[in-house]
């Protein structure tokens, strides 16, 4: 049973299942799907709010734990010069799609679509990891490189939501961000007093951070990103991203170990809440988002990774031109956060649906990367 559960998690079956159910439900019974997603479910809270504003807090909390651990001695981001090239590639993976989006939108000439520029900036971490393992094998250095830039550009994607996609009916109120500072101070003090349970960090620091973002009218999904780095953790990282160390008994390790299975299976909820797009919604926004992810991500990551190497910041061992191009193509899979941003960028249902369809179609990058990997005879490492 444990083996079967791990296979479901490893192949992102919950997320994919949620997307399939949402697509079928929303196209066969659109009114029923809309009521399920937006009618009150628990008190005044609807399923969409429970998923995007509460559950996704855990998703990005796990990502914050991975980034924190990768910055430790022995981690993939330590020392700093090891992080320069993937972070440069991240910049390319954000700037490339934005430039392609604006350029194509200028040709299409629809000012109403301008707000969607942030949608193609993010990469689906789980699916990118899965596809990279198929293309490169489970132990290829290209996988760590890809995961680092995927986590970084997903964090930027959430920052883009907070800064560029505020609710027009509720202008930002920055004074409430002081609650985040208070939450961070409390988390710091808890660590100083060697509190080992992660619950006080979550229930005090995390709740204050969430409330600060929510009251400031910014998206609260990032709330744990400010708190998780204060969790007590080991002084050295011995594993790669998403690889658990059985010898690690720190607070951060237990938080990740105990909640990652909840997040992995909870991604069914995310797919169900966000992927309900009608096939009749295909439009200009679909092609803008899809082209920006496929062309912009691939070219942006390849260009900046190549430039970083020329500037003296090397790519990982065994990552050459063809591997770097494949990393860029795989990073074009923009489901999770792209769907998330699309829901914030557009409020008009038809345009929002068309943009989400572009994010869903980007899953085709997975097939293209697998086929190209075979044609280019990329050496797989296990």
Sum this structure up briefly:
The chain has 382 residues and is an all-alpha fold. Helix content is 66%, strand content 1%.
Write the layout of secondary structure elements.
Layout lengths: L1 H9 L2 H16 L1 H9 L1 E3 L2 E2 H24 L9 H29 L16 H12 L4 H24 L13 H15 L6 H17 L35 H24 L9 H27 L10 H10 L5 H10 L3 H13 L2 H12 L7
Helix pairs in contact: 2-3, 2-10, 4-10, 5-7, 5-11, 6-7, 6-15, 7-12, 7-13, 8-9, 11-12, 11-14, 12-15, 13-14
Descriptive account of the structure:
With 382 residues, the chain is mostly helical. The chain has a domain at 2-49 and 72-164 and 232-238 and 261-375: Na+/H+ antiporter like fold (Up-down Bundle), CATH 1.20.1530.10. It is 66% helix and 1% strand. The protein contains 15 helices and 2 strands. It has helices at 2-10, 13-28, 30-38, 47-70, 80-108, 125-136, 141-164, 178-192, 199-215, 251-274, 284-310, 321-330, 336-345, 349-361, 364-375, and strands spanning 40-42, 45-46. A two-stranded antiparallel ribbon has the order 1-2. A hairpin with a 2-residue loop joins strand 1 and strand 2. Helix 5 runs antiparallel to helix 11 (284-310), helix 7 (141-164) runs parallel beside helix 13 and helix 11 runs antiparallel to helix 12 (321-330). The protein is globular and about 55 Å long. The mean pLDDT is 88.
